[in-house]
Amino acid sequence: MKIGITCYPVYGGSGVVATELGKALAARGHQIHFIAYSLPFRLAHVTENIYFHEVSVNTYPLFEYPPYSLALTSKMVDVVKYEQLDLLHVHYAIPHATSAVLARQILQQQGLTVPVVTTLHGTDITIVGQDPSFAPVVTYSINESDGVTAVSDFLRRETFDHFDVNNDIEVIPNFIDTERFHRLNKEHFKRALCPNGEKVMVHVSNFRPVKNATHVVQVFHRLRQDGLPVKLLLVGDGPDRAASEHLARELGVYDDIRFLGKQEPVEEILSIADVFMMPSGSESFGLAALEAMACGVPAICSNIGGLPELLGDSEGGCLCPLDDIDAFTECARRILTDDDLQAHMAEAARRRVVENFDVDQIIPRYEAYYERVRNGLLAQV
Ligand code: GMT
User: Fold this and answer.
1) Which domains does the chain have, with CATH numbers?
2) What is the pLDDT of residue 10?
3) pTM for this one?
4) Element at 347 (helix H, strand E)
5) Which of 336, 309, 305 is nearest to 322 (CA)?
6) What is the pLDDT of residue 380?
7) Could you report the per-residue pLDDT of 189-232, keeping only the tens digit for each?
8) Which of 285, 301, 357, 366, when mutated, tests ligand 1's pocket best, judged by the most ligand atoms within 8 Å of its CB?
9) Under a CB-based contact definition with an 8 Å cutoff, are residues 272 and 296 in contact?
């Protein structure tokens, strides 16, 4: 199949999922055309079966806000037409689904048919999409898509609860290449960072307010107050990084924290972690926790959104009430002070991922879904 994929190419879960999906589909013989404003960061370079089409937006003195969505639509029209694509798969509703639906209409006028599949990832439904300035467009774009997927049952329910949707939504969870993401031997790195055998706690995010990165610093401060020998690695960058650094200085724990910024490959850092923390206020799936668990790191997560679906009934992590710093601290303390428990949870975390979210299990579900969309076999609600 020839498939066009559009996503946000920057640091973030939806772009990672879209890119890894494209790479995995290409490896299975499909021809993949990424259409985005820059090369997706996990793509690095184009390879056999992978093409990249950059969307550039020309400015004009009239444009205070250059119309990116329209430039994207025009690029989609061109790529579908000249590369003879069979399907467009867009990730994140705004504006990608809207641009794709419009591109499909333009192509229809030219006698060409291209089905549109939209994957909902998170804040396109839970936060941004519900903003009155976007909600009607999101509803329209979902209903006009030929197929819609969501990354968790939670996100599917949220979509039906908050939008007047008449398309069915297929749940296809996030996935990971468990051969790439596994625990590596990084003992030299660990010794350099923890010369006295300290434990390591890790948080990875884009430091948006929804990630509650400052909660991680608060938990870490409590652990240090109790004299626990532990270091904190904060990976990623974004709006709340400065607040997290400020809080760390205020609480006197800055010297035991390493702010590493955006890092690739993240599995090397996860390989020295003893515990991972995700105290998010909203999380439709939790890709960063999935990556940590794949590397055998127990994940302590908020009991919200799609995170209970990620952990399932496994013992690969624990769920804490939202914003409950005491509960997060207690959970981390138990794991970091009991080596047997840590090892048991680490093993359970890895097993949960291998058994449920491996790339080889999930990609065929997308392929089967594409076929159903192309054959018009989807139900409406
Ligand atoms: O919704 C977002 O914040 C954007 C998106 C991203 O690009 O980072 O993240 C979402 O998509 C990921 C991949 O499907 C999910 O694993 C994340 O849980 C989800 N983030 C939120 O729901 C906050």
Assistant:
1) 2-175+359-374 (3.40.50.2000), 187-356 (3.40.50.2000)
2) 85
3) 0.95
4) helix 339-356
5) 305
6) 65
7) 899 899 999 999 999 999 999 999 999 999 999 999 999 999 99
8) 285
9) no
